[in-house]
């Protein structure tokens, strides 16, 4: 499933906080990989945020996989 790109803008997912944001936006400091908020975060701290966000994403995927599976018979 893909979303057709109608303009030069397309939603990006921030690597640090996972927020969806538009890029490029005039007057916004956001970069290709980081939203406006996370651009203001020091690079070292952002690295930690990215690491945590990666883990959260992995856990979310794992959770989704577990939820997709039919519940095993317990009785
Ligand atoms: Zn962000």
Strand order of the largest sheet: 1-2
What is the number of strand segments? Answer: 2
- Euclidean distance between termini CA atoms: 38 Å
Helix content: 40-55%
**How much of the residues is beta strand, in percent?**
5-15%
Largest sheet: 2 strands, antiparallel
Number of helices: 2
Which structural class do you get from the secondary structure elements? alpha+beta
Poorly predicted runs: none
**How does the overall form come out from the CA principal axes?**
elongated
- Radius of gyration, taken over Cα atoms and rounded to an integer in Å: 17 Å
Bound molecules: zinc ion
Overall mean confidence score, pLDDT: 89
Helix and strand pattern = EEHH
Would you mind describing this structure in some detail?
This protein is an alpha+beta fold. The chain has 2 helices and 2 strands, in the order E-E-H-H. The protein has helices at residues 36-39, 43-68; strands at residues 10-13, 20-23. A hairpin with a 6-residue loop joins strand 1 and strand 2. The relative contact order is 0.14. The mean pLDDT is 89. Residues 14, 16-17, 19, 34-35, 37-38 line the site of zinc ion.
Based on the model shown, name its key terms.
single chain, 75 residues, alpha+beta, binds zinc ion
Helix and strand arrangement:
Elements: E1 10-13, E2 20-23, H1 36-39, H2 43-68
Antiparallel strand pairs: 1-2
The structure holds zinc ion (ZN).
